[in-house]
Amino acid sequence: MFSPLKSPAFAIVLLCGISTAHAQERAWKHGILEAKSDAGFIAMVDKGGFAAKRGLKLELLQIKAGATLMKALLSGEIDSVDMGAAESIVAGVRGTGIKIVGCTWPGVPQVVLAKADISSLADLKGKTVAISSPGSLPDLLFRAMLDAANVPFADVKLATQGADLDRYKSLVAGITDAAVVSNEFEAVMPPDIKVLAKGGSAVPKFIRLCVATSSKVLAERREDLVKFIAAEMDAYKYAASHRDETVKVAHEMTNAKPDDKRAEFISDQAIREKQVDPTLAIPVDRIDWMQQQFAKAGVIPKPAPTSILIDASVRDDAAKLAGQ
Predict the structure, then answer these.
(1) Domain identity same for 217 and 95
(2) Spatial CB neighbours of 186, under 8 Å, sequence gap ≥ 6
(3) What global pTM score does this model have?
(4) Is the dihedral angle over the CA atoms 46, 219, 313, 274 positive or is it negative?
(5) Less CB within 10 Å around the terminal CB: N or C of the chain?
(6) How is the beta sheet containing 110-115 ordered, strand by strand?
(7) Is residue 321 classed as helix, strand or coil in its secondary structure?
C-alpha cells in the first residue's frame, strides 16, 4: 500500500516547509552601542514593538565600543548597526562594502566637558582628553572640532576610554582634563566641570548616527532590511511625539533611578533642536563634508564617490512602506 509518509515527493515538500519556516524565524540582528540616556529613541524599534509589526523577529545587541560594533557587522555576526556615521564612512571608504541606508540622529548632542579652569579648546594643548577608541565617533568628532578651532590635533594627549560613562568618570575623578561625551551629563555634572564646546555648534555639518549594513546583507536580505528601516521610521516618529514613553524606555535600558534626569534632558534637547530625523533621510552633502575633514586629518587617503558609501534606494522603498 502506498504511504505518503514514505513518498520522496512528501519528503521534499516537508523539507521545503521546514526550510521556509526556518527562514521566517530568522532574526534580524541589530547592533547598537551600550545603552545610555538616549536609548529611548534608539531602542524604541524593539521596545515599542515596531519591528514586530513589520514581521521581523528583532534581536537588539548592545556592544560597548564602536570599533567592536563595526567588526561584528563586517564579520556577519549582525545584520545592521545604528552607530556613528563617521565610522561607517571610514569603513566604506576603505572598501569594506559597508553602506549607510538611513540616518536616525543627524544632529550632534556630544560635547567636550572640561575642568572649570580650561577656557577654550586652545587651552587643551598638553592636556589629556578622554575619547573612545581611535577612529570612533568621539575621536573623529573631536578632530573636526579642533580643526574648526585651528588647534593642532598633535598638541593634545588622548586617553582611550570605551563608553561615555567611563570618559565622564575619568574627568570627574581628575584622571583626564577633558572628555568627549554625550550631552546627557550636563544634567548631572558637578560645579567644577564645564561645557567647553558643543559639537552641534562647533561642527554643525557633522552627522551623529546612521543605520549601516553590509553589501552581503543588501544582496541576501534586502527585503528584510527595507522592513527594518520602515520600522525605524515608525519608531523614531513615535519616540519624537511620546516623551514619557521614550524616557521610560531609556530608564529601563539603563537601570536608571526614578530621579535621574538625563533621559529627559537629552530627549527634550533632541526634539527642541531637531537632532533626530524620523524620515531617516541621508544628508549627502554632510557626508561629503565629513569625508573632506577625514582626508584632511589623514584618517582616509581621499574622499570616495558617495555611491560607494550609501544605498538610498533602501530608504526610499522603506519610506513608501511606511507611508511617508
Answers:
(1) yes
(2) 111, 113, 195, 265
(3) 0.85
(4) positive
(5) N
(6) 157-160, 128-131, 178-182, 110-115, 193-198
(7) helix
Helix boundaries (H) for the chain: 8-25, 39-42, 44-47, 50-53, 66-75, 85-93, 137-148, 164-172, 199-202, 215-220, 222-241, 243-254, 262-272, 284-296, 306-309, 312-321
End of a domain among 202, 230, 246?
Answer: 202
CB count within 10 Å of CB 257 equals: 7
1 part of a folded domain? no
Residues 298 and 245 in one domain: yes
Q: Strands 193-198 and 110-115: what pairing?
A: antiparallel
CA 262 to chain centre: 18
* Domain enclosing residue 278, as ranges: 6-107+207-321
Amino acid at 91: A
- Alpha helices by DSSP H, listed for 55-172, are 66-75, 85-93, 137-148, 164-172
Q: How many domains does the chain have?
A: 2
Q: For residue range 121-132, what is the model confidence (pLDDT) as tens digits?
A: 999 999 999 998
pLDDT digits (tens, 9 = 90+) for 275-309: 999 999 999 999 999 999 999 888 999 999 999 99
Q: Which three cell numbers stand for residue 276?
A: 533626530
Q: Per the domain annotation, does 262 fall within a domain?
A: yes
Examine the domain organization and report whether 228 and 165 are in the same domain.
no
In a domain, 53, yes or no: yes
